[in-house]
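Lay summary. Proteins are chains of building blocks that fold into shapes, and those shapes determine what they do. In this project we predict the shape from the chain. Here is one chain we studied, written as its sequence of building blocks.
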Amino acid sequence: MKYRSVAIDGPSGAGKSTISRTAAGRLGFVYVDTGALYRVIGLRCLETGLLDLEEIQLSMKFSGGEQRMFDGERDVTEDIRKHEVSKAASDCSALPEVRAFLLDLQRDLAKRQDVIMDGRDIGTVVLPDADLKIFLTASPEDRARRRVAQLSQSGDAPPYEQILQDIITRDHNDSTRKEAPLRQAPDAILLDTTGNTFQQSVGLIENLIREKLGV
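And here is the predicted shape, written in a compact code that computers can read:
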């Protein structure tokens, strides 16, 4: 049986995770947040000051359609969403050994089920033969406002100006790094969600998948 795969790439704060998760639930696909994998490694580096991939026992489990991330027996799903982990994850994702460490894991997930997988290089590197590729973006200002609103819910929201500058810096780092830079695949469909509500963005993704894959 051939499973269907949707690759959604885009810059930090574009809403890839929440939009993809919601669309996957509506369509009966498994949602795979690859950024969470890098965040687990980034969290470990922040806490220990070391990058020792042999010591990381990374696993992904699904419960009630929700993806939970583990480092060994420790559930780090909430910890990896802290603001400071974002930069650490970006730094780690630029390292060839980290990307190689995670590549087979990501590809194996797409071989065993219908997936919507999001990240920075899914359509260009991880799943170059994906059935549908989408590049999801929004203006830096729009992404910063969304990020502040998201972090405010947990009481961990730095000032808007800091978030905006962090996003601009990360965009530059992600798009100029030597290893698997952030870029739109030639056959990816560009979706700019600037000014959209969350439900509008989900609807765009959902309708596109139904149209292109006949779901």
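What the prediction tells us: The helical segments are 16-27, 34-48, 83-93, 96-111, 122-126, 140-152, 160-176, 198-213.
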